[in-house]
């Protein structure tokens, strides 16, 4: 009978070293010593007889052979993780905890309503809500790190249930120079001013999405921070309508109008990353979230503006 030369732990350590950009960073994330990680990868390479990593400077890089094997190892570790999770669900029957990824623009009031309805039936299930932006949301889905995810465009291969569409408005302070220009003919005027954008939460952002032509950009973590900056008369930003209704009504912010681009819309969807292993608590919460949007619908529109 053939006995494997390597262990799942060795492959998980290799994945962490690559994903976090080096032994020191991986050791911190895994709460292990750097020397133990070095030893595990060195032993794995010796057992396989193949060089998987090469260190240049302070960073470890995959070799060509290492890239092939790492890709295959991800399927293996993911399968084992899913198998263990399934066994846990079968044993416990009801999940002790649920993690929800919430795209930052999704109204927290809607999610809170669903959670409030879930609470009486929750059996003590602990809830963790993680605020994410674009690639950050999709990475959590692909890596099976969340039970439910409210996202924009889902990763390829995942089925998503539409929830609602959100409208974004281009806004600035009333004293900002852009506010006195009336309707803008095109985006050239915008490009001359400071733009406030929301940072993608992904570990490996791969593309830029939305209008990002301004030479000057300030990047912040959320729309609350963006609004604080706008209130000082600094910059312009695309902000979800529901987050600035009061400020616009009070005249604290003004909408900018531009021919053909005064408004943008996005659709938000609900994804269950591990549908085959979904437990009863997750199913209940999913149904409650969907129920909040049973009477709403929206058309697919361009995604939100962020800097990646």
From TrEMBL:
InterPro entries: LysR_HTH_N, LysR_subst-bd, WH-like_DNA-bd_sf, WH_DNA-bd_sf. GO terms for molecular function: DNA-binding transcription factor activity; transcription cis-regulatory region binding. Keywords: DNA-binding, Transcription, Transcription regulation. It comes from Shewanella mangrovi. PANTHER family: HTH-TYPE TRANSCRIPTIONAL REGULATOR, TRANSCRIPTIONAL REGULATOR-RELATED. The keyword Transcription applies. Residues 7-63 form the HTH lysR-type domain. This is LysR family transcriptional regulator. The keyword Cytoplasm does not apply. Belongs to the LysR transcriptional regulatory family. Gene3D superfamilies: 3.40.190.290, Winged helix-like DNA-binding domain superfamily/Winged helix DNA-binding domain.
